[in-house]
Amino acid sequence: ETVAKRRRALLAIVCCTTVMLIEFGGGLAAHSLALVTDATHMLADVASYCIVLVSLGTASKGPSARASFGLLRAEVLCGLGSLLLIWATAGVLLYEAAWRMYDLASSDNKPRTDGPTMLGVAALGLASNLGLLLLFRGSGDKGDDSHGHSHGGGDMSTRAALVHVAGDVAQSGGVLIAAALITFDGQRWVWLDPVVTAAAAVWMLSGTLGLFREAYTVLMEASPPDIDTNELRRVLSRRADVTSIHCFHLWALAPGKLTLTAHVLCAPSCEDTDEVLEDLCKVCQYKFGIHHVTFQV
């Protein structure tokens, strides 16, 4: 699976770089801000795919003397870096769109956008982004669902890259529609060029909120929001011979990779603590999807 993800990332880098250069040249030739900003967004995409490669390489390394849990958090840090790229790109797009709209409103000489060139390049960009979306779709949301549900599995950097691609598809679709209208009547619809750019930037920002919350939860070692820790403690405490559970800690090493530690106090009449621990571990694994469990009796 890791090898397949690396191949997808390398293919995406080659494809995205090629289309980015075409869009940048086409945007300059057609005097289209939307195409130039779409090319800028693709530059951020290339950086995002490079982050995916780094994340896959580091997160796949096993535990060592210095990193006893391995480098699982690397994917979260890389995913957060990708989110920062999205925010920076969206900020640039919003600034450029606002400046272009101001220029259109304050100037009688409207910039002449080459509609046919813009239309052809936008169609190429949309086709490329749809291909990338199909390439990454499903590769970033495969969590551990052997117990019936997932906990945000799939490496975060890949899912952040998926947000990049989804934003590209939305922006390219908007650019294509704007290009068609500008081709039909350039002077009347030229304002669509910056409006589409601003709308795509806002859409990109909204798509990062969930990933940011997930990264924050992991880095702060908070309990996963989709697990009721009080319910988990109640279920574990129902086991016969268990009188109390304390020093209870549940956190995620990485999305979908949960860890639980707790101190279990057994009744004095308990004859087989190993059986109790085995039953508690099975409950954690099959009911709550927690596979890394450490209990002290």
TrEMBL record:
Keywords: Ion transport, Membrane, Transmembrane, Transmembrane helix, Transport, Zinc, Zinc transport. Residues 224-297 form the Cation efflux protein cytoplasmic domain. This is Uncharacterized protein. GO terms for cellular component: plasma membrane. NCBIfam families: CDF. It is a multi-pass membrane protein. Coiled coil: none annotated. Belongs to the cation diffusion facilitator (CDF) transporter (TC 2.A.4) family. SLC30A subfamily. Residues 10-220 form the Cation efflux protein transmembrane domain. It comes from Emiliania huxleyi (Coccolithophore).
